[in-house]
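Quick question about two entries, pasted in order.
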Amino acid sequence: MQTLPDIRTEADITTLITTFYEKVGLDELLGPILQADAQVHWPQPLFTMQAFWKRVLLNTGGADGWPFPGGLVLPNTGEYFQRWRQLFLAAVEDNFNGPIAEAAKAKAQEIARMFEYKRQPRTLLSFLRTL
């Protein structure tokens, strides 16, 4: 059994994002959305997502980036975000193992929870329930 490396370089981040989007493109649920969204100028969104993960995982300065392509709109049901998360976690696990890889998976889980929370309808004072 081959031991996988941890995420350590910008090239590793590129591998992660490239692998992830290959998985998304082939996925039965998300692939059609990605193909329909192909009108978006993809090199820039990919660059922006790579900048985000470089900053988060490698503590690089520079652009903040964003974990999702700006023009990509997922339907407002949880199954799409769950699948997005599953594919990202699989991309990490297929290529990397170690503390930074675990941090990438934890951050992806956190981001998915945030997007799930934000997509749910809220009443005006719903924030009071969390107090």
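Here is the second entry:
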Amino acid sequence: MRHGGRLTTIDKAINAPAPTLGTLQREKSKDFAIGLTMGWLVYLNDILNLNKPMTEDQIELCAIEVNETYYTLKISDLTFLFKKIISGSYGEFYESLTIPKVLSFFREYFEERCQLAEQQSLRTHNDDKSHSEFNYSKNIKRVLTGSTRYK
């Protein structure tokens, strides 16, 4: 969490130079990635000081589900997501933490992230398209000479 202060938006989390859970599973091991996620969940359990925290088995099952479903998330995404959870951005816990609650946080974050990534991709595509030499309206040489291949 110490380096999480730099992650203030989903955009920064997406663009941070960090590996994904899938990359960790492939390069280290699946157990390593699950263990990392479990560490975050244990930290969440401890920091929130809940009356009914998740049990070890629940933490492990939740970590497995996160790694199987959200393997495209980067470590920077996890840092930002857990920062948001701790700050209360996803609502009240009512003194308990459950697998469905945690997975709903991941689902909501993942949807936000996908929408932002889609917008970024579309913006990049439109920028690239407008620089294309075949884009008549942006090609100064064509506009000045008035020449077109097909009339």
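Reply: Residues 99-130 form the longest helix (32 residues). The chain has one domain: 10-147. Hope that helps.
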